[in-house]
Specification:
The protein has 134 residues and is an alpha+beta fold. It has 4 helices and 6 strands. The strands form 2 sheets. Strands 3-4-5-6 form a 4-stranded mixed beta sheet. It has a two-stranded antiparallel sheet with strand order 1-2.
Amino acid sequence: MVNARNKGAKWERDLAKILFLELGINFTRNLEQYRAADGGDLIPDDENFPFSIEAKHYATGRGCKKEWWAQSEKAAIAANKIPCVIYKYDRYPPRAVVSLEAIAKMYGSQDDGNHLVELSIEGFCYLCRELMNG
């Protein structure tokens, strides 16, 4: 039987490696997340990184769950960042979920934050680079 906590920790480490290769930013696991509520799963070494990341890995399912998004919003508010869920189901590529507001910021526009957009990891990293470059 698979230990869910170990599976989640492995996904966080794997995701940190993927993001480093794409963005050149080191991410460490937030080990305080089990003790203190409202913390993102990965902590970037670049304070300009705009997102608070909630990482999820499950065997089966479909899409981003509402409770994951709510969790990411709480963590983002606490960190003064933009919420993001990056999830993966077994045998499927990972997906990143952000609010349309994050994309609107890239163009100097606004959105109410109630619309979600799902991106590939590459698309998410493109968004990160654009937001960080102003």
